[in-house]
Amino acid sequence: MELRTIVIDDEPLSRQELVHLLSEHSELNIIGEASSAEKGLALIVQKEPDAVFLDIEMTGMSGIELAETLQKLKNPPFVIFATAYPDYAVKAFRLDAVDYLLKPFDDIQVAQTVKRLLQKKQLAAAPASKAASGKLAVQGEDRIYYLEPEKILYIYREGRDTFIVTEKEKLASKTTLKELEQKLTGYTFFRVHKGYLVNISKVEELVSWSTSMYQLKLKNSDDHVPVSRNYVKELRERLEL
Q: What is the pLDDT of residue 206?
């Protein structure tokens, strides 16, 4: 999968740095750069990229204004804001931004963003019937359950069994945790432990449990989900603006 990408930033050094970091990922094809939102818009209309990395505070039209304009296109590109200012995060995500990169950039932060971008692209490229249904098919002992991913709290593995927990019920499934994780690519699920997959939109608290473990408290649930220390840093980055 290749994503045709444009970088828009009025600071040449910042733009060059981001282009360099993005070029380390073979899935991205940098097809253009622009030094202003106005020039970027013309480039986007001309080349129709899959994704745009966009600074916010620029001379003339701002990145926020450009993103609002892009939403009016028939096939708008994915937008990733890349800025030195954290204050616009809420507004950015209201514009359905894939991610919000803060300067100075680093390779780990960029890699995580590219991963999310590819997940978005994969979900958008799914067959129309599958995307329209929005249901997760879960094979039980004698029936198939169809669940809305947004209503799942967490999924865990216990022995040879997989369990899917919602606010109302717990269902056993023959599908492995790894297979369910793949099916839920593009939704708000995150691996927090080798045996647990959590819907991070349902997270209410992250609590230290021991020297090597944390626990998650979920909305509308008394359950606590263990989090391995190895996953804490990335989990916090996913949860926080």
A: 87
Contact, 156 vs 163, CB < 8 A? yes
Tens-place pLDDT, residues 83-136: 988 887 777 777 878 888 889 998 998 998 998 898 888 776 655 444 445 788
Is residue 28 packed enough to be buried (19+ CB in 10 Å), middle (13-18) or exposed (0-12)?
Answer: buried
H helices within the chain, ranges in order?
12-23, 37-47, 63-70, 89-94, 107-124, 128-133, 177-183, 229-239
Closest CA to 40 of 67, 20, 71, 17: 67
pLDDT value for 130: 46
Q: What is the pLDDT of residue 140?
A: 67
DSSP 58: -
Q: What is the 3-state secondary structure (H, E, C) of 92-152?
A: HHHCCCCEEEECCCCHHHHHHHHHHHHHHHHHHCCCHHHHHHCCEEEECCCCEEEECHHHE
pLDDT (average), residues 181-195? 87
Q: Is the peptide bond before 86 cis (omega within 30 degrees of 0)?
A: no
Is 92 within 8 Å of 64 (Cβ atoms)?
yes
Higher-scoring residue by pLDDT: 96, 201: 201
Q: How many CB atoms lie within 10 A of CB 204?
A: 10
Q: Tokens for 142?
A: 């004698």
Q: Are 61 and 53 in contact (CB under 8 A)?
A: no
CB 166 within 8 A of CB 153: yes
